[in-house]
Amino acid sequence: MEVIITPEEMQGWSRQQHRTGLTVGLVPTMGCLHEGHLSLIDTAATRCDVVVVSLFVNPTQFGPNEDFAKYPRTVEEDLARCRERGVAAVFLPQAAVMYAGDASVSVVEEGLSGRWCGASRPGHFNGVCTVVAKLFNIALPDVAVFGQKDYQQAAIIKRMVRDLNFPLEVVVAPIIRDDDGLAKSSRNGYLSVAEREMGLGLSRALGLARAAVATGESDAGEVVRRMRQHLTEAGLRVDYVGIADVETLEPVSVLAAGQVALVAAYAGKTRLIDNTIL
Ligand code: PAF
Asked: Phi and psi dihedrals of 141, rounded to 5?
């Protein structure tokens, strides 16, 4: 497995793969790899000849009061996991090679970013779009794989790829959960035993929405109210709860199958997100 640290070398490596007729799959990550990331790698491997994983804790997507400094960094373990999983190359840049000190161009998505995570994390999706656009230009993938866990992020990246004509396919892979339903996340490591228990409230709240669809309920507002109450009773501080159109991410008033239910809530200081397609 190659470990590549500069954008130029990464571009050269990918061009070489393309010259020999191989397709390249990219899995962009911020490291601290867990089963969820490994499933993205497996998805990329089924679609492409060679897989590149990027490991980069992107400073521009963290707000001033967020966890950039304490975000878990486990590079040696991440490299070992990638190697075991058959990854062909890891792109492991430092911030200084990713961002010029006087960088003045960024990618701003203005349609889907306003609500949900975008409302509570101003500037977050600009940082995500900019770094992902850069990673696309650096790793030159044919396919890029993202997790459904970050549903809004995946929708925004698909929109960016469409609107800026990136020559690649975006694949969204399903959420991987612990046996008790908690969605895998690098931030789960922050949780105390009691907070982890609270965190189960997210997937259970989503279960209420699925059950409501199954029994033919139609008042989305009422279902959202019940989900919110469930989160609060679990001891979580709610950031948002919503049921939205899968494409536009606009909230719906009439509940129907095929919509997306989205939740974000704090267990102690840790912000957790989850979603499900109904
Ligand atoms: O989902 C993530 O881990 C990050 O937002 C991403 C896509 C790697 C961009 O930094």
From this structure: -80, 155
Question: How far apart, in whole angstroms, are the C-alpha atoms of residue 70 and residue 26?
Answer: 26
* Cα 213 to averaged position of ligand 1 atoms, centre (Å): 31
Which amino acid, 75? Answer: V
Contact 131, 105 (CB under 8 A): no
Contact 222, 255 (CB under 8 A): no
Which domain, by its residues, includes 22? 2-173
Q: What is the pLDDT of residues 34-76, one digit of tens each?
A: 999 999 999 999 999 999 999 999 999 999 999 999 999 999 9
What pairs with residue 257 in β-bridges?
A: none
**What are the E-state strand segments in 179-221?**
none
Strands (E) in 154-222, as ranges, are 169-173
Residue 37 among the catalytic residues: yes
Q: What is the pTM of this model?
A: 0.98
Pick the last residue of a domain from 147, 173, 199. Answer: 173
Nearest 5°: phi and psi at 25? -110, 135
What does the pLDDT average to over 146-150? 98
Domain boundary among 130, 149, 173: 173
> Ligand 1 atom closest to Cα of 128?
9
Q: Whose CA is nearest to atom 2 of ligand 1?
A: 29
CA distance 209 to 217: 9
Confidence of residue 19 (pLDDT cuts 50, 70, 90): very high
